[in-house]
Amino acid sequence: MNGIFAFAIADVQGRELVVVRDPMGVKPLYVGVSKGRTWFASELAAAAEAALVSNRLLPDALKLFLTFRFIPSPYTVDAEAWKVPPGHFARLRIDDAGEEPRFSPFESRIRSSASPRSRNEWRDALLFELDQAVNRQLMADVPVASLLSGGVDSSLVTQMMAAHLPYVPHAFGIGIRSEGLANETVAGKRAADELGVPYHAALIDDEEFVGEWPSLVAEFGEPVADSTSLMIRIICRDVGRSHKVALCGQGADEPLGGYPRHMTERLYRLGRLWPGLSRAVTRRAFGAESASRLDRALSTRDRTDRYVQIFSVLPLHEVDAIVQGGSASAAELAREAVERWVPRDGSGDAVNDLLRVDARLSLADDLLIVADHSAMRSSVELRVPFLDLALLELVERMPSRYKVSPLGERKWLYRQGAARHLPPPLASRLCPPTKRFERKRGFSQPLADWFDSQSGLLADHERWARPLLEHPELSAERIQRALGRVGATGFTRRRSVLYALAQWLDARRSATPAAA
After folding, report:
1. In CATH, what number is assigned to the domain containing residue 426?
2. For burial by CB atoms within 10 Å, which of 198, 228, 254, 273 has the most?
3. pLDDT digits (tens, 9 = 90+) for 52-74
């Protein structure tokens, strides 16, 4: 099946239930045990409302959260609940009710028919398969909208939608008002005008965002430190007033090499030769926290350890110092999470192996889960044409030198194809070679202003960190050390992770016993 799904099939005669999560994990699926029973749900919070979760926090899961900013499959924060990993299924037999489930992988048989050989053939095949994927995902008996940030991915999807639909699709965008002309609705409106589609923009004030963020964190069954989830909830709230289906550009960056972290593996050998220069360039282009992660990655010789450092937020020794107990160290848990997705013998293409891990680790158990939760609360189905299985098979077959160039240009061949497809004014803004030196944007927020500036809305972490400092399984001293002094810069990412955990713990603590 080429689609997004999480389903259960009951075999009444065989007295078993088979639960399945789609190959990329676009749709979440949870399984748990309670009092001799086995349950399944699309949201962990639903099981909590039904009093099915054990309410026992798993220290190993807290370590994974502080490492990655989300909890990778199959773990959840609850000791007796699990996420079905992407591309896995479980047989839940009646005779085994109440026992921990075992997850088995399955392979998608969907393949692209393209067999490109040259660089130009790969470029053309990529754009052709994306166009076909968009067309396939327009199937609906209601009007279909697009989420348009003004970036290359959402602009391409919107353009292709307009070419295939018998009507002009409406596009929706969102931005933070305080960012002025840099907010994404400005870029979205320009892209919509050049594509000839109506555009609906929502502008959010900083205070409004910060005021609503804790309520969203509380709605998740486990902590996820992805602030874009609130942007998706707000934009889908607008979409839901007139549409029930929307296409978005999510899922392009992980398989195609769109994030600065993907440059690390491409430039690894160069970085080890000139670590000081690499650190300085990274710090200037992407900030102190990225430079720190680069340092940790360059210090490793093992590929799996390097992948762990590329994805990690807090250094692993800090995580072990913060979380008391657990069955394994943060390094052991993180290696296990990464190794699940690394090809056993390697593909011979280390960058492609990293991208494969990224798509099934952080994309599946972070971005896709929060997007699904946030959109479905407004009864909006978000479709992700970049994760169409035929397109994905082609992308993952494509040599990584066409994704991240030897000079570190991200998504470079794809951008070349996009430049030939988009209207010239739009292409010239979105597809220049200098994109490799720019930060990745997409429903972004001024987190550094909120967390790191002396007068930022969330700078006073002594106030919001109290649930962390009072939690018995966390070291208050190490938490305070990890947060740094108020107003110190270079702590944005780790502070946002600790903030999300604090808000989630606070909501859990104040929940009624029935809902806990």
Report:
1. 3.40.50.620
2. 254
3. 999 899 999 999 999 999 999 99
